[in-house]
Amino acid sequence: MRDLSWAPAVPTPPLLGAMSSATTMCGKRSKCSFSRLEVILIICLVLMIAVTAVLLILHFLTKDSNGKLRYFSSAITPCLNSRKATGNYLLGVGRADCTGPVAEIPLMGYANPDQVGGGLLTRLYSRAFIVAEVDDSRRVVFVSADIGMVSQRVRLEVLKKLKSKYGELYRQDNVILSGTHTHSGPGGYFQYTLFWITSKGLIRPSLNAIVNGIVKSIDIAHQNMKRGRLFINRGTVENSQINRSPFSYLENPASERSRYSSNTDKEMVMLKMVDMNGEDLGLISWFAVHPVSMNNTNHLVNSDNVGYASYLFEQEKNKGMLPGEVGLIPDY
Ligand SMILES: *[C@@H]1O[C@H](CO)[C@@H](O)[C@H](O)[C@H]1NC(C)=O
């Protein structure tokens, strides 16, 4: 990839080596002349500095014109404020399939180009949860999809579709998209080059399935919104994790380690949504576990342990329904 015709000018290939040797050479010579490579490097350096300066200026200008940073919108604070028991919300839950192609498509997670899809073990779903004030002055949608992670491309396309359907109702600052981090879902839905290397480029059918599944789950949640209540709880779950590098963990200071009972975080936080009759609508749980129950020799598309937990809970709560049929929507 490197143009070898440049090589003779400076014998040391690493950039820093080349630049420092250029400086010493320059000091020794009576007349300071630069080789072609040196000129190119200097131009690159100047350009990099210029681009950095422009980006910094742009960054601070936009921040000022907005008055404040908007990363942490107030949209989700109502859920966290512990309201009176009478506090009500409008709640909606929805689930839609986002499986996409399952054959001859690189799987996202282990960065192994040879790990390509060879069939289906479990379907992948997007689960959407909407919480709004009763007067609908504020709302937030949280989506968890059975995919490796959400990409910038997915987010941009979802927001674009939502905008064309709902105008300003679902926006940059009240749509939260998250992936369950399965390592056995189709890849190819990223816009960055690094991910394109292992996924062998952008794979439109994969991207479309994820975007359409997410938007459909939000549509369903949007359509079935009703008054209800939110409950939050936390507790510990034993015997379900391991630390993947106990040796490294021991490098933490003893004073810090003594604050915890083990080398894994056993706490599960759960947000439950119920309607006004006390019927469960859906729940979101947060628990620190890496979905790598399927290793990098697996070729069957599936949602790994996190998606499987959702599936089992849905089956238990929606007796007699097929997987994916509408009912209680949990998300792990
Ligand atoms: C990967 O998973 C397969 C199937 O469960 C198993 O047979 C194999 O031993 C696993 N490989 C490793 C390195 O754990």
**Total strand count, please?**
11
Strand order of the largest sheet: 6-5-4-1-8-9-10-11
Work out the strand percent. Answer: 15-25%
Bulk shape: globular
- Going by helix content, strand content and strand pairing, the class is alpha+beta
Ends distance? 44 Å
Count of structural domains? 2
Which stretches of 5+ consecutive residues score pLDDT under 50?
Answer: 1-30, 65-86
Q: From N to C, what is the helix and strand string?
A: HHHEEEEEHEEHHEHHEEHE
| Main sheet overview | 8 strands, mixed
Summed up, the helix count is: 9
Q: How would you state the average pLDDT, rounded?
A: 84
Are any ligands bound, and if so which? Answer: 2-acetamido-2-deoxy-beta-D-glucopyranose
Q: How many whole angstroms does the radius of gyration measure?
A: 26 Å
How helix-rich are the residues, as a percent range? 25-40%
GO cellular component, one term: extracellular region
Enzyme class: hydrolase
GO biological process, one term: ceramide catabolic process
Family: Belongs to the neutral ceramidase family.
Tell me about this structure:
- This protein is α+β, with helices and mostly antiparallel strands.
- The protein folds into two domains: 39 residues, no CATH class; 248 residues, no CATH class.
- 34% of the residues lie in helices and 21% in strands.
- The protein has nine helices and eleven strands.
- The protein has an eight-stranded mixed beta sheet. It has a three-stranded antiparallel beta sheet with strand order 3-2-7, with no helix packed on it.
- A hairpin with a 7-residue loop joins strand 2 and strand 3.
- Helix 4 crosses helix 6.
- It is globular and about 85 Å long.
- The site of 2-acetamido-2-deoxy-beta-D-glucopyranose has 2 residues, from loops.
- Keywords: Hydrolase, Lipid metabolism, Membrane, Metal-binding, Sphingolipid metabolism, Transmembrane, Transmembrane helix, Zinc.
- GO terms for molecular function: metal ion binding; N-acylsphingosine amidohydrolase activity.
